[in-house]
Amino acid sequence: MSHDLPPRRAIVVLMDSLNRHMLGAYGGSEFATPNLDRFARRAVRFETHYSGSLPCIPARHDLLCGSLDFLWRPWGSIEIWERALTDYLGEAGVTTMLVTDHPHLFETGGENYHTDFTAWEYERGHEGDAWKTRPDPSWIGAPSFRRGQMPYDNSRGYFRSEADFPGPRTMTAAARWIDEHAPHHDRFLLFVDEFDPHEPFDTPEPYASLYDPDWEGPHLIWPPYAIGAVEKGVVSQREARQVRACYGAKLTMIDAWFGRVLDAIDRNHLWDDTAVIVCTDHGHYLGEKDLFGKPPSPIFEALGHTPLLIAWPGVEPRVEPALTTNVDLFATLMDLFGAKPQHLTHGVSLIPLILGKVRSVRDHALLGIWGREVHLIDGRYKYARAPEHQNEPLSLWSNRWSTMPVYRARQLRLPPPDDRAFLDRMPGTRVPVIRQPLQGGDALPYWAYGNFSGNHLYDLHSDPLEEENLKGTPLEKELAERLREALREIDAPDDQLARLGLA
Asked: Is the distance from CB of 497 to CB of 487 less than 8 angstroms?
């Protein structure tokens, strides 16, 4: 296909918590990922792609709304001044289909991302999905790792074979849609939001013992969320190796079922007119720097530097070094289908980059979690700026007052707005938004808790393992000024600059 004829269709496969450094296509050798590697052999492999807003739902806001989320709020659904990608595409006559097992999309705070798809299919039972009210009485119980009762414990017994697990069912449903429906739609977007290899890292044999065959007892499928996990005795070295092996098992299992989606694309000869994108929201620490999960710390490479693979009709496979970030995927899909956003967005279309017409699309990217460090990345340096003193001032901007449900700590919820709240305007809109200033003693969302370790600055070219912190050097002054300008460029809240000492 000529570069002058854009694809008419797109398939996006988002695998949650997909670790770039563990994929064969990116040089990983610890775990087998033959189908992701198979796809990479026909794709443009992006080497400098980063998350934007973390964790799960903020990342989906980046992807489906195209606007960075983490500077304004911690976790939430589509706001009234925004329109989802799927809304714009539906208006343009594009059929959109969601296939997912991601439970956060159907909870408070994530509940309206699916509603503008032409159709959607939800495969039940992953992690916190409130699917069953009691366990299967014939089942002895789900493996647990000091997590207490989880909705997964009720669901697990209903998975009798590998094909019954949510991930395999999701990939099967996606392949089935490609076989049965894709040929009948001239223009479509198929969005596969696959929660694997996110925890629980629970798999049947032979996967469960594949990477740690000597382990005895229940597999450790629930990773801790901890800084200094081994040093502090949260897990032993042996347990840490088992948790990592269980992630590898989940990764290899979902890779196998992803192969069925690739087979369906092959059967239906879609490569000639369909853009296929494989991406993720973020990585997952599995012992790197003695970190596990997504704990309150700066975002190191294992978590924020993510894989992006794009197969584009008429474009030869290659390695692409240019800096990119997740909001750029929204802009790319809008561009592909000829749609134009009517709300403020922060992404840049990657199509000129994919086609080789430009060498870069951005000179920096912003990365972070609401209430935590704010990161500036320019392709060489990563600068994580922490609050200058206390984590104040800080405000939450939203007209949808919600955050991630935490099943074992229901008290961790946002207090309702009080008499400190006032109406402000979101950048690029005339819509009033509730702005709630927070202060010491307020209950913060789960992801905003934890201490800070000061500023971090790394030269990723000479120090890819982020071992030499360059804070306090003349270089930090330059990066701090660049971060200040980057925040002003997008009209970030003034209190964000104040708390970071950049006002």
From this structure: yes
192-225: pLDDT as tens digits:
999 999 999 999 999 999 999 999 999 999 999 9
Separation of alpha carbons 496 and 160, rounded Å = 49
Concatenating the DSSP letter of every residue in 47-75 gives: EEEE--EESHHHHHHHHHH-S--TTT-SS
56: its two tokens: 């799960």
Q: Residue 220: exposed, middle, or buried by beta-carbon count in 10 A (0-12, 13-18, 19+)?
A: buried
- Backbone φ and ψ for 22, nearest 5 degrees, come out as -105, 0
Listed in sequence order, the residues at least 6 apart from 316 whose beta carbon sits closer than 8 Å to its beta carbon are: none
Tokens of 325: 């970030």
Q: Where are the domains positioned within the chain?
A: 16-365, 387-499
pLDDT tops 90 at residue 56: yes
Would you say 93 and 187 are in contact if contact means Cβ atoms under 8 Å apart?
yes
CATH superfamily of 16-365: Alkaline Phosphatase, subunit A (3.40.720.10)
Per residue in 362-391, pLDDT (tens digit) is: 999 999 999 999 999 999 999 999 999 889
Side-chain-facing half-sphere of 3: CA atoms under 13 Å: 9
Are the C-beta atoms of 331 and 347 separated by less than 8 Å?
A: yes
Task: List residues bridging with 459 in a β-sheet.
Answer: 381
CA 87 to chain centre: 21
Distance CA 100, CA 81 (A): 26
Exposed e or buried b per residue across 39-66, where buried means at least 16 C-beta atoms within 10 angstroms of its C-beta: bbeebbbbbbbbbbbbbbbbbbbbbbbb
Q: How far apart are CA 99 and CA 15, in angstroms?
A: 12
**At residue 141, does pLDDT exceed 70?**
no
H helix runs in 92-236, sequence order: 151-155, 166-180
DSSP state of 305: B
Q: Are residues 495 and 393 in contact, defined by beta-carbon separation less than 8 angstroms?
A: yes
Q: For the segment 254-288, what is each residue's pLDDT rounded down to a tens digit?
A: 999 999 999 999 999 999 999 999 999 999 999 99
Judge whether 225 and 231 are in contact, CB under 8 Å.
no
Tokens standing for residue 201:
């890292």
Q: What percent of the chain has pLDDT over 70?
A: 96
End-to-end CA distance of the chain: 51
Residue 184 backbone class (left: φ over 0; alpha: ψ -120 to 50; beta: rest):
alpha
**Sequence-ordered strand ranges (E) for 216-266:** 226-227
The Cα 125–Cα 134 span in angstroms is: 12
